[in-house]
């Protein structure tokens, strides 16, 4: 990550502004740890779809729903830099092209590891699969807990935000949408 040294200095200054001593035993390495943490949590900016997919698109005459459910993700709210996290459910109906199943969670992670809004994250996942595969349709549902809601502000610990993005037959065909929603409702935690 560019500016890791600059990030460490900013964190050190923030610790001072909070009224703490960055030279105190427990805080000596905190600027370095926090800078490295942010580098990891924002690594999606330095990753591309091409790298992730790495040629794992296959021609196949399969035209039924493909669903990868309960993909755990962690992201940072762009308004407060506080985590939000949960599960992504991603499905598509191929039109002659399949993607390696492990690539779907990797796509979720790439977009989640950026400063985000849950709504945008949901759209980015759906649109990237639509663009890459040109499928008959894509459906994405994200369920997430937001620490900016739970730890500050309204402080509602049991709240859950649910967003969806539907493309193609998932948007236009109620039967397809309901099949997807039914599949993800029956997933164990």
Q: Can you put this structure into words, describing what you see?
A:
The protein is of the alpha+beta class and 189 residues long. A hairpin with a 5-residue loop joins strand 2 and strand 3. It is 41% helix and 26% strand. It folds into two domains: 4-41, no CATH class; 56-185, GTP Cyclohydrolase I, domain 2 (2-Layer Sandwich). It contains eight helices and seven strands, in the order H-H-H-E-E-E-E-H-E-H-E-H-E-H-H. The chain starts with a helix and ends with a helix. Helix 1 crosses helix 2 (30-41) and helix 4 packs antiparallel against helix 5 (118-133).
Give me some keywords for this one:
single chain, 189 residues, alpha+beta, GTP Cyclohydrolase I, domain 2, 5-stranded mixed beta sheet, two-stranded antiparallel sheet, 7 strands
